[in-house]
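Query structure, 200 tokens:
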């Protein structure tokens, strides 16, 4: 048993869990460029072939690491506000801040895997937690039911705007030398709730 494996077992983790944790750490800190089986194995302190005793292929390991990365990030971010609590404005700012932080943490890993659809497909099979987008939609729908939003409030359009801002902010930062400045969250929420209509 290698020292790394002994450490993993001593911590109550299986070798498979140790390999996923190692790949997750590499994915989070270095991205996916050049993230090979050999790199993961060396970082984990095992021989290259050991990975194939626990995973069918590299794609399965990377999907498990990506799933772990998203779950770890979501756990750090805590819970989102319940419908009916505080004000809708406050709760939407909280949702938006959560979404921005989540996307800043995980989008770099996803963009690095665009050329590896097999990894993304495996991730979709593994990741059964409710996505933030769905949580936001459910929150707005519940507030509409409670009468804290207009009965005809276009929930899907509001969700698309807020999620789109997160994508634009993070992807622009990855692709451009000078990404656009994120507008104040209170301004974004004001536009979502009150629109840009002309003054009567």
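Result returned for the query:
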């Amino acid at each position: 048993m290698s020292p790394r494996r002994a450490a993993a077992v001593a911590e109550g983790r299986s070798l498979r869990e140790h390999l996923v944790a190692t790949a997750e750490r590499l994915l989070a800190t270095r991205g996916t460029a050049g993230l090979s089986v050999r790199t993961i194995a060396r970082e984990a302190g095992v021989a290259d072939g050991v990975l194939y005793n626990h995973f069918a292929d590299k794609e399965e390991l990377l999907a498990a690491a990506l799933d772990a990365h998203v779950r770890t990030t979501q756990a750090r971010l805590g819970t989102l506000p319940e419908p009916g609590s505080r004000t809708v404005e406050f709760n939407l700012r909280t949702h938006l801040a959560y979404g921005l932080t989540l996307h800043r943490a995980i989008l770099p890993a996803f963009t690095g895997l665009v050329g590896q659809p097999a990894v993304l497909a495996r991730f979709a099979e593994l990741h059964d937690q409710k996505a933030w987008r769905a949580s936001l939609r459910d929150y707005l729908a519940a507030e509409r039911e409670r009468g804290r939003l207009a009965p005809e409030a276009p929930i899907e359009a509001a969700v698309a705007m807020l999620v789109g801002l997160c994508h634009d902010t993070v992807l622009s930062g990855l692709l451009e030398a000078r990404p656009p400045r994120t507008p104040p969250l209170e301004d974004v929420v004001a536009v979502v709730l009150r629109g840009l209509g002309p003054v009567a």
